[in-house]
Design goal:
Elements: E1 2-5, H1 14-24, E2 34-39, E3 47-52, E4 57-62, H2 72-99, H3 103-137
Parallel strand pairs: 1-2, 2-4
Antiparallel strand pairs: 3-4
Helix pairs in contact: 1-2, 2-3
Length: 138
């Protein structure tokens, strides 16, 4: 996997970002050939992920609160789970958009899918953390 760091990442933060990405890079799915790391200074979330399965790319944006997060590894792992679920999440959304004619029902179902994806990402990131602890004991 090729990793690219965008120039908008402040120079003083780049070594921290690189170290933290290196710690979790093995968690990205094998389909991800290009990982781009960006920085958005106007977002209150810790990080955000924009996977593009068809293009084999993931854009992971880091936001300022990320650097104060003592559990940054969990936050990154959660975002990585979005890239794992992306093919399935997009398929489900496309099915709803294609076969549910009623706009109100379609909106409701897409909202439910998004919430289910968030909850699943969180569960998978907790699972990855537990698995990591068990592997260290082996």
């Amino acid at each position: 996997m090729n990793i690219h760091y965008l120039p908008e990442i402040p120079e003083s933060l780049l070594p921290i970002v690189q170290e933290r990405i290196e710690a979790v890079q093995d968690l990205f799915p094998d389909w991800c050939h290009e990982l781009t790391i960006g920085y958005e200074s106007d977002d209150e979330n810790l990080a955000s992920c924009d996977p593009k399965h068809h293009y084999r790319t993931v854009l992971l944006n880091i936001h300022p609160p990320f650097f104060a997060d003592p559990d940054w590894e969990h936050s990154l792992t959660h975002e990585i789970q979005h890239s794992l679920l992306d093919p399935l999440a997009r398929l489900a959304a496309n099915i709803v958009e294609s076969f549910v004619p009623d706009e109100q029902t379609r909106h409701y179902l897409l909202k439910q899918l998004a919430e289910a994806e968030e909850l699943t990402c969180e569960d998978l990131s907790i699972f990855a953390k537990k698995l990591g602890r068990k592997r260290r004991k082996w």
